[in-house]
């Protein structure tokens, strides 16, 4: 019952902001500056009937998710490698902080020379999410119960079992938290990189075309698409991690 009420409240909040959007479009009275949510969703349905729409989504989705998964793997391995090794952590920390601080635009321009246009969004999604996953995973490893680790050492518990039964439950909530926010950042940064690099047949490229020709309805329709993709992929990924958590606890 509580969940149902929460969903209703959330839907009412969404309806409120859609109403604000609609009223703002009426007040402005210019389709170039701002179109209504109705016109935006009508245009989204029109785009959804075109093949290039799904091709652009597929191209962008594969590369951004690839960059995110790569950041997940590298972030976890790097956190595991530097945990308990103060010298290595001190050595790695400045590099990760620099990656975290460099603007997406700067990385995108440099990456164009390093990896080319086709893999630009993969690289940008990777470097955007890596610091988030690294620091969260490191924190999870650091906060693992030392008593459980000591007990595992006393009873000579094999390392794979220690990882699965001791480290995993401690680290997973931190990874879930990082993944929830990181995937959204990956989509924002990845699409921005596509726009900056003018990568053809991508969501970012379609945003640029809409901007160049002042197609505000198209611009907002593609923006809604990004939001929906980010939301759906986040839910799918978190569901997969929770299933892994359930399997581990059995």
Word description of this protein:
The protein has two domains: 33 residues; 215 residues, MetI-like (MetI-like fold, Orthogonal Bundle). The chain starts with a helix and ends with a helix. It has 250 residues and is mainly α.
CATH architecture type of the largest domain: Orthogonal Bundle
Report Rg: 22 Å
How much helix, percentage-wise, in residues? Answer: over 70%
Tally of discrete structural domains: 2
Number of strands: 0
Q: In whole angstroms, how far apart are the ends?
A: 28 Å
Subunit organisation of the chains: single chain
Question: CATH homologous superfamily of the largest domain, by name?
Answer: MetI-like
| CATH fold naming of the largest domain | MetI-like fold
List key phrases describing it:
mainly alpha, globular, 2 domains, 85% helix, MetI-like fold, 250 residues, single chain
List the topology elements.
Layout: H1 2-28, H2 37-48, H3 51-82, H4 86-101, H5 104-114, H6 120-142, H7 146-154, H8 159-197, H9 203-212, H10 216-249
């Amino acid at each position: 019952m509580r969940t149902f009420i929460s969903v209703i409240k959330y839907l009412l909040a969404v309806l409120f902001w859609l109403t604000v959007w609609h009223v703002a479009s009426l007040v402005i009275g210019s389709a170039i500056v701002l179109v209504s949510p109705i016109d935006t969703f009508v245009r989204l349905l029109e785009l959804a009937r075109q093949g290039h729409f799904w091709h652009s989504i597929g191209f962008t989705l594969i590369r951004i998710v690839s960059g995110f998964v790569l950041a997940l793997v590298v972030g976890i391995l790097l956190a595991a490698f530097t945990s308990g090794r103060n010298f290595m952590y001190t050595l790695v920390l400045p590099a990760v902080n620099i990656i975290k601080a460099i603007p997406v635009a700067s990385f995108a321009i440099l990456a164009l020379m390093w990896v080319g246009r086709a893999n630009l969004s993969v690289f940008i999604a990777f470097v955007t999410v890596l610091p988030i996953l690294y620091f969260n995973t490191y924190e999870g490893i650091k906060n693992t119960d030392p008593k459980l680790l000591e007990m595992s050492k006393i009873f000579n518990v094999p390392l794979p079992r220690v990882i699965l039964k001791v480290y995993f439950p401690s680290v997973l909530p931190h990874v879930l938290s990082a993944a929830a926010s990181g995937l959204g950042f990956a989509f924002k940064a990845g699409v921005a990189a596509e726009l900056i690099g003018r990568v053809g047949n991508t969501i970012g490229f379609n945003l640029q075309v809409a901007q160049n020709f002042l197609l505000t309805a198209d611009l907002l329709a593609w923006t809604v698409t990004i939001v929906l993709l980010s939301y759906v992929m986040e839910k799918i990924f978190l569901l997969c991690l929770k299933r892994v958590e359930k399997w581990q606890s059995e």
